[in-house]
């Protein structure tokens, strides 16, 4: 789609998993918390697989980046 754009922080690739995008976020509201505590607000775990919560503000940004890139 010619009118869509994306600027991920990195593009990764490996033989076992294929291609992917990296998006780094550093929100100030969590800067004084431990990483273990922060992950609960961003990710969900289903059968040993972590994924971004579908109702999170960054979810659609990351989905678009994966599609465009």
From TrEMBL:
It comes from the Eukaryota. Gene3D superfamilies: 3.90.320.10. GO terms for biological process: DNA repair. Residues 2-68 form the YqaJ viral recombinase domain. InterPro entries: NF-kappa-B_Signaling_Reg, PDDEXK-like_dom_sf, Restrct_endonuc-II-like, YqaJ_viral_recombinase. This is YqaJ viral recombinase domain-containing protein. It comes from Amphimedon queenslandica. The lineage of its organism: Eukaryota, Metazoa, Porifera, Demospongiae, Heteroscleromorpha.
